[in-house]
């Protein structure tokens, strides 16, 4: 009986969404436009600043530190402290760093295919008395559009989940549809499950459609497994849908729900690393960003797409999303009211 | 006497600032139509929603087939609320099918569609239904599980006279199947036509209860004579209290023959005389002392 009721509610909700052309159109056209717009506007590099990663030497190696000091004083180059040499090398491969200096071993890496790497190397050679040992890597550039696409897809999932579930349930409550369902043998558990699954299916179909559709025209970086990426998207969508259910658990006014959903989604959109990297930002902001499901969704999706990470590499983010989903579901189930 | 299908005993419902229902008891015999009447704010919707199992009472109990209301009741009751939104972009047929799938036992859908006169609109989007079509669909939804007990909360409010009559026929046909109905309404003619028994509520209490005829007989032993004002040159000379309304003079009397004789003796023309019995509207106003609200 559960399955019969669940499927009846699921299929009706799917039909309702798919026949609402303006809603479907908005869910597809908006993210496509954002992706294409960013591809056109930011078709080049991240920014016009040179970035050099520096692996620091312990104080005991004063000579090594002194050797590169003149170069470190060059203006208009940003020197970033590096702790993990192997990760930094990948960044040189992806053109995210123009050069990498291994201070203790007096070595440096540049990317053979990077014009900016070539220029930074010329500057360094001109400033240092003793040249360092040259190492090269090669690899295609990661453009800003490659970097930002996982964030845009994640952001789209967030909006679709929060508003598609939160707003819709509040509307049903306000217009008496939920009250009518309460008068049937349907349980809150059956009703909410149908809403979650319906929205999850729709989000995944739309996200996969946008992913392949825009990739066909733009051709952005995808170094990881497609299956892992979609699993991350599904888990992220679940956490956002559950958060939408928490918002929709009791509110009876669409205005209040809309305001609350905006209050949740806008800070997430700007502070979850969708548009710019959180590396080097205020530590307070980084701690705050840890709370947002969108941070974990974006970071995990980005790691898979541009770093080729596997599920184990992003396990921490998946675990956080899972815990958040469970917590949000419990809160919404306990707080849910039909009327 | 047969045990009632649904019974409420001393129902009380208090909200923080309002005492909505103050000790209401009544019983519905199987196969009858029970009308709950009352002005807005009288507590009838709260009472009905407690009966429907939508709200728990502060005190008192609701018994269905002799047992406290439980899960079984949800499957065997059909409810038509005062206002229910239907899902947009879904057709009449799909709406009925969805609700049918929510119950373990269903009425024959084709028969239901036929009876509620929905055949012509089956593939129409819910948004495109007229007021009457919409109410018939909501009634069909209430009947989709072939319920024993049916709640109709102001089902004809806002309908045109034709749709109202059509709806009454539908309710009569449901009654003819032996179903039990609880009807709330503001229309006294509707209650008179459809209900076997009525209860009038005000201030959270039942102030009168019985069959419509019993109630009228118990409260009124008079009739109203109506004459056009133009037929009476000096209304002050009439030896009765009179009431003027819309160009007519109304005389309330318990002895029609004597009053007519007196009017004739005063040389008043009786060519346009109308005699009206007291109706439920009069009773309602007499008991609640208020104009109908809503």
What sequence of helices (H) and strands (E) makes up the elements of chain B? EEEHEEHEHHHEHEHEEHEEEHEH
- Integer count of domains of chain A: 2
Fourth-level CATH superfamily of the largest domain in chain B? P-loop containing nucleotide triphosphate hydrolases
Radius of gyration of chain B: 23 Å
CATH class of the largest domain in chain B: Alpha Beta
Coarse structural class of chain B? alpha/beta
Taken in chain order, the helices and strands of chain A follow as: HHEHEHEEHEHHHHHHHH
> What share of residues are in beta strands of chain A?
5-15%
Biggest protein-protein interface? A-B, 25 and 27 residues
Query: Which ranges of chain A are low-confidence, i.e. pLDDT below 50, for 5 or more consecutive residues?
Result: none
Describe this structure in words.
The complex is a heterodimer of chains A (339) and B (294). Chain A folds into two domains: 2-42 and 143-335, no CATH class; 50-137, D-Maltodextrin-Binding Protein, domain 2, CATH 3.40.190. Chain A is elongated and about 85 Å long. Chain A starts with a helix and ends with a helix. Chain A contains 13 helices and five strands. By secondary structure, chain A is α/β, with parallel strands linked by helices. The mean pLDDT of chain A is 87. Chain B is α/β, with parallel strands linked by helices. Chain B contains ten helices and 14 strands. Chain B has helices at 44-51, 71-76, 92-101, 109-115, 131-143, 161-176, 188-194, 212-219, 256-265, 280-288, and strands at 6-14, 19-28, 33-37, 59-64, 67-68, 77-80, 149-153, 180-185, 197-202, 205-210, 223-228, 242-245, 248-253, 274-277. A six-stranded mixed beta sheet of chain B has the order 6-7-8-3-9-10, sandwiched between helices. In chain B, strands 2-1-4-5 form a four-stranded antiparallel beta sheet, with helices on one face. Chain B is globular, with a radius of gyration of 23 Å. The two termini of chain B are 37 Å apart. Classes of the chains: A alpha/beta (339), B alpha/beta (294). The interface between A and B is medium-sized, with 25 and 27 residues.
